[in-house]
Amino acid sequence: MSRRALLKVIVLGDSGVGKTSLMNQYVYKKYSQQYKATIGADFVTKELQIDDKLVTLQIWDTAGQERFQSLGTAFYRGADCCVLVYDVNIQKSFETLNNWHEEFVKQADPVDPEAFPFILFGNKIDVDGGSSRVVSEKKAREWCASRGDIPYFETSAKEGYNVHEAFLCVAKMALEGE
Ligand code: GDP
Ligand code: MG
């Protein structure tokens, strides 16, 4: 068994939910209020140790084109894990998860879509101390259960809350499916 693994992770969800911020927080420990549609690269990498394995996560971000066009086949090709992100304060971003899930299955065409490792992040839980939240944790977990027990994490890219834990789960899932 190899002691190294290179795993491709793609991050999907509506524009503005915090995909780029989550990656920046995880990889660079940085957060910016300023709206930047892209990090200027196709992907960023993060190395981590899981048991006796050195894992390199290659995390692919969109350049903001999720707003108006499809992401292209290169984006989806060979993905080992798909992170779906919504904003707990915006109902629409929760509802479109169905579309993103469907789009992934269509574009990436995994051998067994039922068994493919998806994970859901409910982001921006810090906003107004949680008082502007419109999607409950229960609703989110129900959606995850209906999709075959997708793991769920509530995160704040702004405060760095649960971000490492969530991506650690991503890495472990991607590694298992390898
Ligand atoms: P993307 O379009 O999904 O990549 O979203 P961005 O990462 O560009 O974030 C959109 C906006 O939401 C930016 O102004 C971020 O600063 C802000 N944002 C992202 N994550 C959080 C969060 O966890 N909490 C709060 N309060 N704002 C966030
Ligand atoms: Mg972005």
From TrEMBL:
GO molecular function, one term: GTP binding
GO cellular component: plasma membrane; vacuolar membrane
Tree of life domain: Eukaryota
Topological category with respect to the lipid bilayer: Lipid-anchor
Keywords associated with the record: GTP-binding, Lipoprotein, Membrane, Methylation, Nucleotide-binding, Prenylation, Protein transport, Transport
Function of the protein: Protein transport. Probably involved in vesicular traffic.
Name under which the protein is recorded: Ras-related protein Rab7
Gene (name only): LOC105123881
